[in-house]
Amino acid sequence: MTEVNIVTSFNENLLKNTTHYLLSSLKENLEPDVKLTAYYHDCNLDAYSIPDNITYKKLDDIKDYKSFLERYGEHDGTEDGKIPYNEKLDVIKWSHKVFALTEYAFKLAKNKNAGWLIWLDADTYLNKRLTKEDILFLLPEGADIVYDSEDFCFMAFNLNKQPALDVLADLRGAYILGEVTKYREWHDAYILQRLLTIYEAHGMRVHRTTQMHNYFYHFKGIPDFSKLAIRNSKGERVFALSDEASPDIKPNRYRQIVDLMNTYKPKVVIETGTWNGGRAIEMALTAFEYTDTFTYKGYDLFEDATIELDHEEFNAKAHNKLSAVQKRLEEFAEHVKVNKNKTFSFELQKGNTRNTLKDQGEWFDMALVGGGNSIETVAHDFKCVKKTPVVILDHYFREDDDKLLPNEAYQGVNKIFESFKGNKKIRKHVLPSGDKVKEGGFTHLMVIINDKKLPTIPDHLQRVPIVVNPRDCVPKDYIRNNIKENLKLIDEQKFVTKYRNHGDHAIIVSGGHSVDYNKIKEILKTYPDSIIICVKHAYPKLLENGIKPWGCILLDPRSIDGESTHGIKRKDLFKIIEPSTRFFVATMTDPSVTNYLMERKADIWGWNAFTESLRDDKERKKGILNNQVKLRDDIGLPTGATLITGGTCAAMRAIGMLHTMGFRSIHLFGFDCNLKEEPTKDMKKETTGAEDEDPRPKYFQVSVKDKPYWTTGELLAMAQDCERTFKDNGMGINFYFHGKDTLVSEIWDRSEELDQLPSYKEAFNVH
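RESULT FIELD:
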């Protein structure tokens, strides 16, 4: 089996405050086959009682380390007393980790099978038994480096792979040569992140994980003993929990519960999986729209939860204390009584429902089964509430686009659904959902209507949304040839790469009919440093209205001589070329477009759009592994080339491009995604599709909030991209949407209504 070693470092202060907890927990819970080495400095170990199953080494014995301290001692966060202490500029503090990690790594690397070296910060704590097999399960075999996605308290280096050793050599070199002091921050995490970004762009396989949080707790320098694992009366390890309930989480499918309540109007509800009580409150508020009293009974493990049970039941959420949820619901009950003259009564039951939940008969109006996911737990819980008029079971799993699905052991709800196959007397439904499971697959609500007097589920809840899986509009070989040719045509020095963030505004103008040119001019006056990037269909219209685009983005892999999807000859879109416009030509664009623009003396800049055509066919089924996509070797893209993602069309790629350019404030115009008028009968007969796929209708009707719109597959794919983008707070973009009465404006309005981040002014009462 592959070797696994662990290394850490500490000083006397750390040893007294946190490290002795780490060392003790490792002695108790770490399998002896995993060796731990601890480097120490400024510490007399003889004065302390420490575990003897750990190898201790002096940092002072490392010559490079001692030399480094002598040469750069003034960079102690105060610049030798010249500035107030700045931890991020304390190069001495962060050097201990760098030299301990690299010294031991280079020593191990002398062996042919050096295996994995794991770095642990000295202020961590091992919560449970950890074996070599457990560790190797969390470290993908093909990865070069694995690290915790929240911070660098846990890092694993595959010393059998040269990239890992190269990164460590560069990290150490940055300190030995003093290069570290030339950066904005001098701590190891900052330097290491820069190195990983560079190496990953050149093909190194980096895997980010949060799984180590199942084993380790990170004090982050300050011991918080309430966060350590404790034991219950049975001696089982449990999580020490806060006295306050966790923040609410509201997946999209939970909104369907509100719709179901408004349809069936339950007044007495039972739920397994109460968690933080948030759903109980949401259901009560919904019920108070049609009744003055609401009764709730909730079951949960609360502080009886264990890591083992979480694994058994496929749970990834933190747990809450019974007292914390009790307090929250009591405060809610008092609030609605005083302020709304409503009555909320509740009862909470702690423990495993397989022991605490009994047959409930028909006492409740609605039941939610959402606790455990194991086949045994779901079967038991459903059996106890199956006579309830309306039963909702959470976590019916379906495959995602990569054919991924949670383990069969967690498909308890799926088993219930399958048991009803062929039974037409049972009214069962799986509601559409786009909620993804982190490990793969989609999760849905399954609903069973037992009371014959109750109506069927409303149509809008059963309506399956149209999902367009975009394909390239020309064969993949054609696109690959376009890329090869454009790499020859476009100046290699004029390609879009990554740029630092800034505060300027940008305007994207797409080809929709709702563009307000006067509004664009107002924004340009308000933000004089802002820029405009448009798609090719918007370019001539902007010029006609006296607006000179800073850039025009091109993505179409079809010939300049053909007609666009708008029925316009592509060449006619460039009858007038403004000299100041930069034409951002994707390498997948047909070279006839590039040549035509060159003939017109246009200012051409290249960029690389990620497309399925770039992917290695052999790796396609594997999807994205270790955050890497294997590209075809025969295309010729340079190593480390920036790939712009962002969607199926030029307008959506413009968002990705501007994000790469550092823009975080973006105005959207012409993002309509629907036809201005209903297509004619002849148009409705038209079909579309690439040469290697079956033809499909070009125009069809969809609805948002029951409002119909005529659209095309390409436009609808863009609308879906918009919906995903508007929900994605991770990009950190402030969008300003301009346009009304369009398909995407409806999507925008809906996204504004749902789960948006609060304004800091509201949060802090800023006026």
